[in-house]
Design goal:
Low-confidence stretches: none
Strand order of the largest sheet: 1-2
Helix content: 55-70%
Radius of gyration: 37 Å
Order of helices and strands: HHHHHHEHE
Number of domains: 3
Number of strands: 2
Largest sheet: 2 strands, parallel
Strand content: under 5%
Structural class: mainly alpha
């Protein structure tokens, strides 16, 4: 019975070939990615130094944190540093470029995270009172209302600061 039933049902139910094409394309992408991933892992296994250099450069070298010059003139290291890394050409021309090329995420973090943050001394708390009365009210009524508010606020301490 199944020998005649299945082909007859298959004629009545259309098979969607579109999904089949999408699945094949998706599987091809997965195979390509897996092949690329396998080649990358094999390469990095045999060339570990490449992975280490990529990691270091991604994190960044703190070129922008190098001092412009070393003040101690007696040291031979300071003399060499001031002639090479402290020279005007390096500081003005090369250091900004090297900072961008070798700075990585460390440079971005130090430039943009602390750029908008600052510390300021704490100020005393202020209470701002805005009072409005309905139309037809007089200035004397508004004054009485503000006096009641000031008396109420003065209960909390003499240092209460009110701005109008």
């Amino acid at each position: 019975m199944a020998l005649w039933f299945i082909p007859a049902v298959m004629e009545k139910i259309p098979i969607q070939t579109q999904k089949n094409k999408i699945n094949i394309a998706r599987k091809r992408r997965v195979v390509r990615f897996t092949h690329f991933y396998r080649k990358t892992i094999l390469f990095l296994r045999s060339h570990k130094w490449v992975a280490i250099i990529i990691f270091i450069l991604a994190f960044g070298l703190p070129v922008n944190k190098l001092p412009e010059e070393i003040k101690n003139k007696d040291s031979s290291f300071a003399k060499i540093y001031n002639k090479t890394l402290g020279s005007d050409y390096f500081v003005d021309d090369l250091k900004p470029l090297l900072s961008k090329l070798l700075g990585g995420t460390l440079r971005l973090f130090t430039e943009f995270v602390y750029q908008n943050s600052y510390y300021k001394e704490p100020e005393p708390t202020k209470l701002i009172v805005i009072a409005k009365m309905s139309e037809g009210s007089t200035v004397h009524q508004l004054n009485e209302l503000i006096k009641k508010m000031e008396n109420y606020i003065s209960k909390f301490g003499p240092s209460a600061n009110v701005c109008y």
